[in-house]
Design goal:
By secondary structure, the chain is an alpha/beta fold. It is about 55% helix and about 20% strand. It has helices spanning about 15-30, 45-55, 75-90, 105-115, 120-139; strands at about 5-10, 35-40, 60-70, 95-105. The chain is globular, with a radius of gyration of 14 Å.
Length: about 140
């Protein structure tokens, strides 16, 4: 049993709730403990994961958020930089599953967030658990 932290950028409540439900269900089904931390936006997720990892209280992390394309370049910045930040942390050996949806519209987000459909929150949790297994194997 490990302790995982789901770090969520809460912006679209109904979508985040579905992503968290999927992630929590996957982690708890595997016997892990789960906490949830809310941050202001997707760009803050990697900083929160880094701080929480330094605390030593968690073995793995799941990043949750939804970024929907708008009319400005902001979508690209948030999408690319949130992914880059998480990738940098994984290269440092922190087990993370990336469940930040980057989509064109709310319908695409709903399809991916819903645990009864694509369940990307659950998939991110499975990825985090697998990365923890790999980290433990090589440490």
């Amino acid at each position: 049993m490990a302790k995982f932290l789901i770090v969520e950028a809460r912006f679209y409540d109904h979508l985040n709730d579905m992503l968290i439900a999927g992630a929590r269900a996957a982690l708890e089904a595997a016997g892990h403990l789960v906490d949830v931390l809310t941050v202001p936006g997707a760009l803050e997720i990697s900083a929160a994961v880094s701080l929480a990892a330094e605390s030593g209280r968690y073995e793995g992390f799941v990043a949750i958020g939804v970024v929907i394309r708008g009319e400005t370049y902001h979508f690209e910045i948030v999408s690319n930089e949130s992914a880059r930040g998480l990738m940098a942390l994984t290269m440092d050996g922190i087990p993370i599953g990336n469940g930040i949806l980057t989509v064109e519209n709310e319908a695409q987000a709903l399809e991916r967030a819903d645990p009864a459909r694509k369940n990307k929150g659950g998939e991110a949790a499975v990825a985090a658990m697998r990365m923890l297994e790999i980290a433990e194997e090589y440490r």
